[in-house]
Amino acid sequence: MSSYHIPVLLEESVEGLQVDPSGVYVDLTFGGGGHARAILSRLKEGRLIAFDKDEAATENRIDDERFVLLQQDFRFLKYNLRYLGIEKVDGILADLGVSSHHFDDASRGFTYREDGPLDMRMNRSVRLTAADVLNGYTPEELERIFREYADVRHPRRLVERIVAFREGRPFRTAGDLQEALRSFLRGGAGNKFLSRIFQALRIEVNGEMEALREMLQQVPQVLRPGGRLVVIAYHSLEDRLVKHFIRTGHFKEEETDPFSTEKPPLRPVNKKVIVPSDEEVRRNPRARSARMRIAERIEE
Q1: At what angle do helices 190-205 and 139-149 cross, to 10 degrees?
Q2: Would you list the domain boundaries of the chain?
């Protein structure tokens, strides 16, 4: 498990769930199973349902009669719980980060550090890859991706370079993308810029923002009053979306009616976002951008 992924904010996230030994819990991002094992260690006759759309995660399946692993996207949370005969759960955990396994396996295409194929699919049964995005999206679509997901304020010149490259030959590998963006990678910030570009492509390929919205909308429907939601985000856009939904029950400022008497279904537990300790970041540098929020389902 540790070679697959080092779980981030492990103790803090499981403590945030306030695990009832007889409760029913959901781990929406099973990965290497680190968070799942910690939850199971606190259960007696309770149950844990885990989701992961990556077939590689099934190799980490836990042999425990209290545990069920579904190879499913967490955007289908409510449907899959009902399929299992579960209407309400006591806690939900979502660690939105990419497993270390994905970065370390060059064939998956998640990293610029290896010249692997531009794939980036979490679920390899879907068709769209990062190469498809770079080769087939319109300039306007590419600008949107890099503006929204990579925080590139003025992405037009970047997109012009991508379009010029693909007119000569299609993008196939991480090396192709680095070659196309060489003029943007000068100086000490080149690797950080590449990380943001790869992250943006990954978010688009896997529909991560749409899946997160769909999942959050289902949480109030499946979480018992008093039940806890714990979300660990690694991208500012994800964190803002989670924060706003917890506080208002909506995703956008304009959806919030200041005169409405309707109460949001969730209550924030932690007023300040929870971040990894300096010691955890030293042990696991990939934890440095993690931001955790905890919410509680309000009594209906």
Answers
A1: 110
A2: 10-100+208-297, 124-205
- Of 130, 151, 94, 100, which is closest to residue 202 (Cα–Cα)? 130
DSSP 3-state helix, strand, coil percentages of the chain (rounded to 5)?
45, 15, 40
Q: In sequence order, what are the residues at sequence separation of 6 or more whose Cβ sits closer than 8 angstroms to the Cβ of residue 163?
A: 139, 142
Nearest alpha-carbon partner for 115 in 56, 194, 186, 183: 194
99 within 8 A of 105, measured Cβ to Cβ: no
230-262 pLDDT, tens per residue? 999 999 999 999 999 999 998 875 455 555 667
> Which CATH superfamily groups domain 10-100+208-297?
Vaccinia Virus protein VP39 (3.40.50.150)
- Residue 201 has which token pair? 């492509």
Closest CA to 228 of 28, 19, 70, 33: 19
What is the enclosing helix (H) or strand (E) of 279? helix 278-283
Q: Hey, what CATH class is 124-205 in?
A: mainly alpha
Please give the helix or strand (H or E) that residue 100 lies within, else none. Answer: helix 100-104
CB 202 within 8 A of CB 208: yes
Which string of DSSP letters, residue by residue, matches 121-184? -SSTTS---HHHHHHHS-HHHHHHHHHHHS--SS-HHHHHHHHHHHHHS---BHHHHHHHTGGG
CA distances from 180 to 121, 132, 202, 203, 226 (A): 22, 16, 18, 20, 51
Task: Answer yes or no: are the C-beta atoms of 93 and 17 closer than 8 Å.
Answer: yes
User: Looking up tokens 């949107």, which residue turns up?
Assistant: 144
Q: What is the pLDDT of residue 179?
A: 95
* Global pTM value: 0.91
The H helix count followed by the E strand count for the chain is 12, 7
Tell me the pLDDT tens digit for each residue of 25-51.
Answer: 999 999 999 999 999 999 999 999 999
